[in-house]
Specification:
The chain folds into three domains: 50 residues, no CATH class; 91 residues, Tyrosine recombinase, N-terminal domain (DNA polymerase, domain 1), CATH 1.10.150.130; 155 residues, hpI Integrase, Chain A, CATH 1.10.443.10. Helix content is 49%, strand content 8%. The chain is built from 15 helices and six strands. The chain has a three-stranded antiparallel β-sheet with strand order 1-2-3, covered by helices on one side. A three-stranded antiparallel β-sheet has the order 4-5-6, with no helix packed on it. A hairpin with an 8-residue loop joins strand 5 and strand 6. Helix 3 packs across helix 5 and helix 7 crosses helix 11.
């Protein structure tokens, strides 16, 4: 029997009925861990020790910490996952996995609503917990059930479709700080998400082929995006003054990755100066999509350019170009049949309505 420290927690390791047992003591205090190990020794000697299911031995902290270090760290939305885990820890504390029940998860949702959090944010946080439990159930064999699967997700309002007119864009760009103006201009002409732009490196820029590559998109897939002349000129300008201290295309003054909070703060100042309201950075992506659809670009192409996994996401922009439906009704015009039908209508109108 012995103790081994993993991270900040002491673990027990001992043999029981010919099997190696490893169990967390749940504490970073070595003296307390030794006392817990002593109790287990007494239980084994007296025949009162029974091996518990993994879900009664593993804690929520262990679950989310392993999820972050082994899984989330490789994903494009890593920073958002970190925020979700921090929020989950603050509410749940560190219970054993079998104590994380649907009832407690529903209480978590109600708690978040009380704090004024939107349904979309709650769903993202629950999705993080669900993915962690799925890994624990399927791959790590820590539990046999995923309690999050028995809790309904919240209904989201995804109907927001705010986009910039040409005049609004001009006013907003003029009001923005130079570094923010570059970000916004590139977002409008590439349709890329904020995270994709902030993580863009020169390794993903091919000025000769006029293409940028997102190595890790929101969906975890690689995506190549062709550049129009405006975006290309902007990147050529950036390339002429790029720093050797970073590979980022749009770094901060300290040559580090820009912070989303600083971007929101600067954007709000620009909106106030331009006397505009109800606009988020992500609406620049909506602007890009809307303008493409209004110009008659096929929805399938828009889907591919934006990196939408499902055409349903792109379909929301279809109403911006009703002219794309015109060929459908024009197919009903069958030449002579049209003139014949009109002639028949004229004869009927001259005769008057048929008597009953």
């Amino acid at each position: 029997m012995g103790l081994v420290k993993r991270g900040h927690t002491w673990w027990m390791s001992f043999m029981y009925q010919g099997q190696q047992v490893r169990r967390s003591t749940g504490t970073p205090d070595k003296r307390l861990a030794e006392a817990i190990l002593g109790q287990v020794k007494v239980q084994i000697i007296e025949g009162r020790f029974f091996e518990k299911p993994e879900a009664q031995q593993r804690t929520l902290m262990e679950l989310v910490d392993r999820y972050i270090s082994e899984h989330a760290v490789r994903r494009a939305n890593y920073r958002r996952e970190l925020t979700s885990v921090k929020t989950l820890k603050a509410f749940f504390g560190n219970p054993m996995l079998d104590q994380v029940t649907p009832k407690r998860i529903v209480a978590y949702k109600n708690h978040r609503y009380t704090n004024g959090v939107k349904p979309a944010t709650i769903n993202r946080e629950l999705a993080t917990l669900k993915k962690a439990f799925n890994l624990a159930r399927r791959e790590w064999e820590w539990c046999t059930d995923n309690p999050v699967c028995r809790v309904s997700m919240e209904r989201e309002n995804n109907t927001r479709d705010r986009w910039l007119t040409v005049d609004e864009e001009t006013h907003l760009l003029n009001a923005a700080a130079p570094w923010l103006r570059e970000l916004m201009l590139f977002a409008v002409h590439s349709g890329m998400r904020m995270g994709e732009i902030l993580g863009l490196t020169w390794a993903g820029v091919d000025l000769f082929r006029r293409i940028v590559t997102v190595f890790k998109s929101k969906n975890g897939e690689r995506r190549s995006i062709p550049l129009n002349q405006t975006a290309l000129d902007l990147l050529k300008h950036k390339a002429g003054s790029r720093s050797v201290e970073t590979e980022l295309v749009f770094p901060s003054n300290a040559q580090t990755r820009l912070n989303a909070s600083n971007i929101s703060r600067s954007l709000n100042l620009a909106l106030e100066k331009a006397k505009m309201t109800n606009f988020h950075f992500h609406d620049l992506r909506h602007t890009c999509a809307t303008r493409m659809v209004q110009a008659g670009v096929d929805l399938y192409k828009v889907q591919r350019l934006l990196g939408h996994k499902s055409p349903i996401m792109t379909q929301r922009y279809a109403h911006h170009y009703p002219e794309s439906l015109r060929d459908g009704v024009e197919a009903l015009d069958l030449g002579r049949a049209v003139s014949t039908n009109l002639a028949q209508l004229q004869v009927v109108s001259e005769r008057g309505p048929a008597s009953c």
